[in-house]
Design goal:
Elements: H1 2-12, E1 25-28, E2 33-38, E3 48-54, H2 67-84, E4 90-91, E5 105-107, E6 113-119, E7 123-124, E8 127-128, H3 130-147, H4 155-178, E9 180-185, E10 192-194, E11 197-200, E12 215-220, E13 224-232, E14 235-239, H5 246-255, E15 269-271, E16 276-278, E17 286-289, E18 307-309, H6 314-327, E19 332-336, H7 342-345, H8 349-354, H9 369-376, E20 379-383, E21 396-401, E22 404-407, H10 409-414, E23 429-432, E24 448-451, E25 455-458, E26 461-464, H11 474-489, H12 499-513, H13 516-519, H14 531-539, E27 546-550
The structure holds adenosine-5'-diphosphate and magnesium ion.
């Protein structure tokens, strides 16, 4: 077949661009199969898509038998492919600093490798450039397949890459037993090169050094014994002067739900897998969320236990974000004063004296944070440099001083006052109308795509995802769109189950079959999102309809 494809492409040279469509289908190259899945209509359309199936690249089972290793080895191979193809027209989605299961490079059950590649099929104007296409598909591509053969791989580097990811996963899985919500290893590099570059800061980065009182020692399968700062369950406050590294630490914890590539500096910075960054998000839509613990007696008379708005305020959006995170199964909240609604966070004595309790609909987070932990097992890590009110409720206080953490819990306790907690009632569960989650456009065609890191287009809806800060990869945004489609298509959302139950069901399907389970027919790169981000996208869908609220079980 490879000779046939080569002749075909050379013969097409100079023909009208549309003739590329005739390439669709399988081409057998002997040691791999090239499947042309989708062909662009013209040179300016999104790239064409090809699937390369290599049944036996010689990857030993030791490198893929275990699911974590399989993800890591696939990621390693995908990055190698990306480097090798840098000067070609072929594009492999290699991701950024995180190691996430993605569609671009997968290892199958038998140890085969699948690559999903984009290619801008070359043209001269609207004519086919057959010679360039022949070079890409019949020379570059077979060369790539040769270079991905296990005999050609730096096996030590591949093993070290996978070992590192295995250690990260082991570390994260130990957190619960250790009574921690997060861990930051000594020597970790937290700051990034810039606000838009996720690589480690190289010049002047101060490596992390744990304070003695919070130091924890952990044994890992490959690195052996490591030490670092354990962030305990409960309420942890991060304080310190402006520019001393508070947000950088919290940001590293947010990213700690994912595994990082060796050399990133955050390989051993982990948070509980369910940790959710909470922020205010003025203007978002809220669909029948029970925010009653935070908001009561609005001047409009609206029922805040069944709260709906097309235009939430800073405080109500943040309250909804917390309640939705709990509904999606999170028991770890990460909060930074830089992105919160002040009136939901604190209300000082003078303001209470001026605006009497019965005129204030909001119960501030500071009065709910303890009952959240005590009665519901929800821990919070909170950056707060601007108010001492949280001293009253914190179990631990970490002060960042010139990028060095210090345990100042005792000093903060001496400054604390008695505080009377409010009551936190678990928000009611919601049942979603599956028909309101429709990924098709007016003409009934499936439509899932992404605009930068800002918008997920889902059917006729533009979902604003800018405030979903734990999306770390463009592919995850598309992956979340595909997961929404799967929620309905595969019956996880059936109009009877609660959203939480539907997410359980989706999550086990994804764990069993992988991201490809939701995107097999989709011609584009996608990566695995967490259930928390899938829920976050669903909650921002402007067409979403909740049919019923139910009291939370358990
Ligand atoms: P804060 O939230 O306390 O105001 P940030 O976390 O925003 O401070 O950090 C301020 C600046 O310091 C940022 O530019 C950040 O990249 C840099 N920074 C943070 N941690 C370190 C570190 N460990 N070493 C060097 N620079 C750092
Ligand atoms: Mg800050």
């Amino acid at each position: 077949d490879d000779a046939r494809l080569s002749q075909e492409l050379l013969r097409m040279d100079g023909d009208s661009y549309g003739r590329y469509k005739s390439l669709k289908g399988d081409w057998d190259f002997g040691d791999f199969t090239l499947t042309v899945q989708r062909v662009q209509a013209d040179p300016f359309a999104p790239p064409s898509r090809i699937l390369v199936t290599i049944p036996d690249p010689g990857v030993p089972e030791s490198a893929w038998g275990d699911p974590v290793r399989r993800r890591a080895t696939a990621d390693f191979l995908g990055r190698r492919a990306g480097r090798l193809l840098r000067r070609s027209l072929l594009r492999v989605d290699t991701g950024g600093q995180e190691v996430i299961e993605r569609s671009s490079c997968r290892i199958t059950d038998g140890g085969g490798v699948e690559l999903r590649i984009g290619i801008d099929l070359p043209g001269r104007g609207r004519r086919i450039d057959g010679r360039a296409a022949e070079r890409e598909l019949c020379a570059t591509l077979p060369g790539l397949v040769d270079d991905l053969d296990w005999d050609e791989i730096d096996r030590d580097a591949a093993a070290a890459f996978a070992d590192s990811v295995v250690d990260t996963v082991a570390l994260r899985s130990r957190l619960a037993d250790l009574g921690l919500v997060a861990f930051v290893a000594d020597g970790a590099i937290l700051p990034r090169r810039s606000g838009v570059a996720d690589e480690p800061l190289t010049e002047g980065a101060v490596p992390f050094a744990s304070p003695a009182d919070l130091r924890v020692t952990v044994d890992l399968p490959h690195r052996g014994t490591v030490t670092g700062m354990g962030v305990p369950e409960g309420i942890t406050l991060i304080v310190g002067g402006g520019f001393h590294g508070k947000s950088t630490l919290l940001h590293a914890l947010e990213r700690g739900v994912h595994d990082h590539v060796p050399g990133d500096g955050r390989e051993l910075v982990v948070a509980r897998a369910d940790a959710v960054k909470i922020r205010a998000e003025e203007g978002r839509r809220v669909e029948r969320v029970d925010v009653g613990s935070f908001v009561r007696d609005l001047p409009t008379g609206a029922d805040t236990a069944d709260f709906r708005t097309d235009n939430a305020s800073g405080s109500t959006s943040q309250a909804a974000n917390i309640c939705e995170a709990l509904e999606a199964g999170s028991r770890t909240l990460l909060v930074d004063e830089d992105s919160t609604a002040t009136n939901l966070m604190i209300r000082d004595e003078r303001m209470q004296a001026l605006v009497h309790g019965d005129r204030e609909p909001l119960t501030p987070f500071v009065d709910l944070i303890r009952p959240l932990y005590r009665d519901h097992g929800v821990s919070t890590v909170l950056v707060m440099g601007g108010s001492g009110d949280y001293f009253d409720v914190a179990d631990h206080v970490i002060m960042m001083d010139a990028y060095h953490p210090h345990d100042v819990t005792e000093r903060a306790r001496k400054l604390s006052r008695d505080r009377i907690d409010a009551v936190f009632t678990a928000p009611r569960d919601r049942v979603i109308d599956p028909a309101s989650v429709d990924g098709t456009d007016a003409r009934g065609r499936g439509r899932i795509k992404r605009r930068d890191m800002d918008v997920l287009v889902f059917g006729d809806d533009d979902i604003d995802v800018r405030s979903i800060e734990q999306f770390v990869d463009p592919g995850q945004i598309v992956g979340a769109g595909l997961a929404l489609r799967a929620l309905v298509r595969d019956g996880h959302l059936d109009g009877r189950r609660t959203l939480a139950e539907a997410l359980d069901s989706l999550e086990s399907a994804l764990a069993e079959h992988g991201i490809i389970h939701v995107g097999a027919d989709f011609g584009g790169d996608h990566a695995l999102p967490r259930r928390q981000e899938v829920a976050a996208v669903l909650n921002r869908l402007r067409s979403l309809k909740v049919t019923e609220q139910r009291p939370r079980r358990g």
